[in-house]
Write a structure and sequence with these properties.
single chain; alpha+beta; Cytochrome-c3 Hydrogenase, chain B; three-stranded antiparallel beta sheet; 13% strand
Length: 365
């Protein structure tokens, strides 16, 4: 039989259609059909100033908008040769890592829903709201921020932010044990995810898979360590990798577990950034009066919650980019679905898809 899962289906994590060939309950082939959310982001950019592009980056991976802003502005800054104040660099890292935690919380909570566990989602969504409170306190927005600008930030940290951030970190760290008790080491959850959808390291590399999905396969590759940008080289943190603790290396459980561990590593980075951040500095000091890069091109990569996020920008010397191309880590993750889902049952397909943590806004753009 040929079955359609989606495009309106809660476990496809967006408007994704999976054309699934089956022999009974066993899947023999999956064809992902995308494009239902296509908004011509890259073509739009050819008619917008560099500053106007930033809100559009928010709307690609709308679960990790800060990280999308971050990747774009550092690319334009490198193209223009802009050096931003140290305080700006530290604030950017704090916001990016808070957004990484928020993104992973949503990914893990909805993954529990995919498997059939409702309570962990409520716990994780509750804790994500506390991070969104910090974002709202800073820039007035909870989902789409337009916070990181070329050469600086839209707002400096408000009075009381540092204390509120420490309060959140102190509250959040013990919560991870609760997540583990509820879901990570739950017997039913392990049976649904261990040894399912194994992604070998070689296959992941050949498909261009990055981020937690690659690290879940045992490959310790993280751009924050391998090709440090901003001030990431000043922080001590580890790169969690899948170890096959309850099943094979690179299975659904490993990909989930890596995200749990990454949240704790982000907590480490945020604490160090809060301690080292200069107390003074104008976040608007390096803002150019007009963003007009010289003729040339650049490709810049950053580590988003989903992996290697790249922006390729061509400048013709005008205030409007000649071309912008975005490399989506979620797109390469979706490409590998057919490879690792063949031979599994239909119910396992949703467990495998959820473990890849895709966002359709970033895939379709």
């Amino acid at each position: 039989m040929v079955l359609n899962i989606g495009p309106q289906h809660p476990s496809t994590h967006g408007v994704l259609r999976l054309k699934v060939k089956t022999d009974g309950e066993i899947v023999s082939e999956i064809t992902p059909i995308i494009g239902y959310l296509h908004r011509c982001f890259e073509k739009h950019c050819e008619n917008l100033s560099y500053e106007q592009v930033i809100p559009y980056t928010d709307r690609c991976d709308y679960i990790a908008s800060m990280n999308n802003n971050f990747g774009y502005v550092v690319a334009v800054e490198e193209l223009m040769g802009i050096e931003v104040p140290e305080r700006v660099e530290y604030i950017r890292v704090i916001m990016a890592e808070l957004n990484r935690i928020a993104s992973h919380l949503l990914a893990l909570g909805t993954y529990g829903l995919d498997i059939g566990a409702f309570t962990p989602f409520l716990y994780m969504f509750r804790d994500r709201e506390r991070i969104l409170d910090l974002f709202e306190m800073t820039c007035g927005a909870r989902l789409l921020y337009n916070y990181m600008w070329v050469g600086g930030l839209s707002h400096d940290l408000p009075v009381g932010f540092v204390e509120a951030a420490y309060d959140f970190l102190d509250y959040f760290e013990p919560q991870v044990k609760e997540y583990n008790d509820l879901l990570t080491y739950n017997k039913i959850f392990i049976e649904r995810t261990a040894d399912i959808g194994v992604l070998p390291a070689e296959v992941a590399i050949n498909y261009g898979v990055t981020g937690p999905n690659l690290r879940g396969s045992g490959v310790a590759w993280d751009l924050r360590k391998a090709e440090p940008y901003s001030v990431y080289d000043r922080f001590e943190f580890d790169i969690p990798v899948g170890k096959g603790l309850v099943g094979s290396v690179g299975d659904c459980w490993d990909r989930y577990w890596v995200r749990v561990q990454e949240m704790l590593e982000s907590v480490k980075i945020i604490r160090q950034a809060l301690q080292k951040m200069p107390s003074e500095g104008d976040v608007h000091a390096a803002l150019p009066k007009k963003v007009r890069p010289p003729k040339g091109s650049i490709y810049k990569r950053t580590e988003s919650p989903r992996g290697d996020l790249g922006y390729y920008i061509i400048s013709s010397g005008k205030p409007v980019p000649f071309r912008i191309k975005m490399r989506s880590p979620a797109f390469t993750a979706l490409c590998v679905l057919d490879e690792i889902a063949r031979g599994w049952m239909i119910s396992d397909v949703l467990a495998i898809l959820g473990s890849l943590d895709i966002v359709l806004g970033e895939i379709d753009r």
